[in-house]
Design a protein that fits this description.
Layout lengths: L1 H10 L2 H5 L4 H33 L3 H13 L2 H9 L7 H25 L3 H9 L4 H31 L12 H10 L2 H29 L31
Length: about 240
């Protein structure tokens, strides 16, 4: 319990929060790296996923991208970037995290678009909507819950993994853990790990609320973990982050 006691002492020291290069500065840097990486992944993955979902082609590519992302760890990408012109630092970490965030967003966007009822599309076309209008007004709104699930999954993974920036000369909360290892200060290591874990959980909660606010149709509590059973006695399935292809 000594390590946890030391962690509480570290976290309760106002100087550790407010000094230059302290927790607040590192937190801002951590959030900046994560936000840029996720936004870059969204800008790249969502249009590609929509295009492949509308055309009905590219399911094999989605499977390959998803499998490769699981096989290649982020630390390996950082090592490759370190020996390339990209070099060390926050830029290398942001690029690696963006690559890491693309697969879940791409997969969920593709599956969400493909899951839209074709009869709904036909009804929209019968009302005179052009193809682009059908995508913007029908496909995307209906696929939005699944797209947001992919974004939420990617964001939580990125926030948790951004701590690796400290290993390549970058910033973020991982520097607290890295410095703790260097000084053999287990209280500081635990404090840094707790901060990263809490930040990942808060990211999940915030994006759950955002997904709930953007989702079309009637709304229930965004934190309802279990839905009521249907009249027939069967319960509705719970949403999951991993979307099968």
């Amino acid at each position: 319990m000594t390590g946890f006691s030391d962690a509480l002492v570290y976290l309760n020291d106002p100087l550790n929060w407010t000094r230059r290069g302290g927790i607040l500065d590192l937190l801002g840097e951590h959030l900046g790296i994560s936000a840029v990486a996720v936004l870059a992944a969204v800008v790249l993955a969502v249009p590609v996923g929509v295009a492949m979902g509308v055309s009905g082609r590219g399911s094999g590519l989605v499977v390959v991208v998803a499998n490769v992302s699981r096989a290649v760890p982020t630390l390996a990408l950082l090592t490759l970037f370190a020996v390339s012109p990209i070099g060390f630092g926050n830029r290398a970490t942001t690029i690696a995290l963006a690559v890491f965030a693309v697969p879940p967003i791409l997969t969920n966007t593709f599956v969400g678009i493909r899951g839209v009822d074709p009869d709904v599309r036909e009804a929209a076309r019968a009302m005179g909507l052009r193809r682009g209008q059908v995508v913007a007004r029908v496909d995307l709104p209906l696929a939005l819950p699944l797209v947001m699930t992919g974004v939420r999954t990617a964001a939580v993974q990125v926030v948790a993994t951004a701590s690796l920036a400290a290993l390549v000369g970058g910033g973020g909360l991982g520097r607290i853990v890295n410095l703790g290892f260097g000084q053999q200060d287990y209280g500081q290591i635990i404090a840094g790990a707790l901060l990263i874990a809490v930040l990942a959980l808060l990211t999940e909660l915030v994006l759950v609320v955002v997904s709930w606010a953007l989702a079309p149709g009637p709304r229930t509590s965004p934190f309802a973990g279990i839905r009521r059973g249907r009249p027939g006695g069967t319960a509705e399935p719970l949403p999951v982050s991993g979307v099968p292809l």
